[in-house]
């Protein structure tokens, strides 16, 4: 019999509970016990007097795959928040590492499953380097981990964006307005690209494709001149105007809270086109709610595959989706690079063929 732990770290997204259920189900099938830690890595700092964990059973996790969020909670701050930028990482204080080691040994854990994005997996790698048996499960709503084709939660977010734009379009058409929809996507524009293409957006602005407002204005004017009543612009929160990244507080290049590009673009476009314009920031609605079927299935598959890695004692590795198969990759390789939109990829070319403007010189209407 083996004892394994599991935790979620970083931002939440639909499908986390599916991973938990997958891990618990696969472990129970093998006769193992699972300990779930509350509030990410912080749960590893539990003491005998302050238990921030509980045993998870198939009964306590029955059908949680259909639930949004995570029953274990998650955080992206605290003693283990070491990610400070692309390809950069900080350090965890030695006393924190030692307390973590003590918790793992006190609970007789044979392995720890870490569900999280590049920052969380970087932390998992540090725990692995001090001798803890760790396996990773990729989690990022932005779909920007380079080691896997897709991450759970991404498709659910795209569904939210698509439905939201469908609703926004009807009111935009009624009032002959332009609507700017800001969506998540710090370094990668996958949500904007998939969501915008799915919902028939006229303009899609991505972090990977530099754009100029003059080009966007030109394409919008052409659509209005052709008699189009409503204009839909989708913009990733990490899209840059020149070298500027909009944040909620100030311009910066660090890992901070992004936001504001939608409002900024809406104001500039309204001034240039004289079309009444509104901005909608979808924000955390993209993270909320129940996962769609695809993410429920991918979540339980990832969870089951993580238990398989533990059974084979393949530690310091992360499960990943390649094509239709679940494979494993080293955590070190997984955090080396981000999965970003290739400006020349087939999806972008398809959008261009349909007349979508990306605000660059190659755009046409």
Largest sheet: 7 strands, mixed
Point out poorly predicted stretches.
250-254
Tell me the strand order in the biggest sheet.
3-2-1-6-7-12-13
Query: What Rg is obtained from the alpha carbons, in whole angstroms?
Result: 22 Å
User: Beta fraction of the residues?
Assistant: 15-25%
Describe how the helices and strands are arranged.
Blueprint (H helix, E strand, L loop, with lengths): L2 E6 L7 H14 L3 E5 L15 E4 L26 E3 L2 E2 L4 H13 L4 E6 L1 H12 L4 E5 L15 H22 L2 E6 L6 H10 L3 E3 L7 H13 L5 E6 L24 H13 L3 E5 L11 H19 L5 E6 L2 E6 H4 L11 H8 L12
Helix pairs in contact: 1-8, 4-5, 6-7
Q: TL;DR of this structure?
A:
It contains 10 helices and 13 strands. It has helices at 16-29, 94-106, 118-129, 154-175, 190-199, 213-225, 261-273, 293-311, 331-334, 346-353; strands at 3-8, 33-37, 53-56, 83-85, 88-89, 111-116, 134-138, 178-183, 203-205, 231-236, 277-281, 317-322, 325-330.
Please characterize this protein's 3D structure.
35% of the residues lie in helices and 17% in strands. The chain has helices at residues 16-29, 94-106, 118-129, 154-175, 190-199, 213-225, 261-273, 293-311, 331-334, 346-353; strands at 3-8, 33-37, 53-56, 83-85, 88-89, 111-116, 134-138, 178-183, 203-205, 231-236, 277-281, 317-322, 325-330. It has a 7-stranded mixed β-sheet, sandwiched between helices. β6 (111-116), α3 (118-129) and β7 form a beta-alpha-beta unit. The longest helix is centred in the middle third of the chain and has 22 residues, at 154-175.
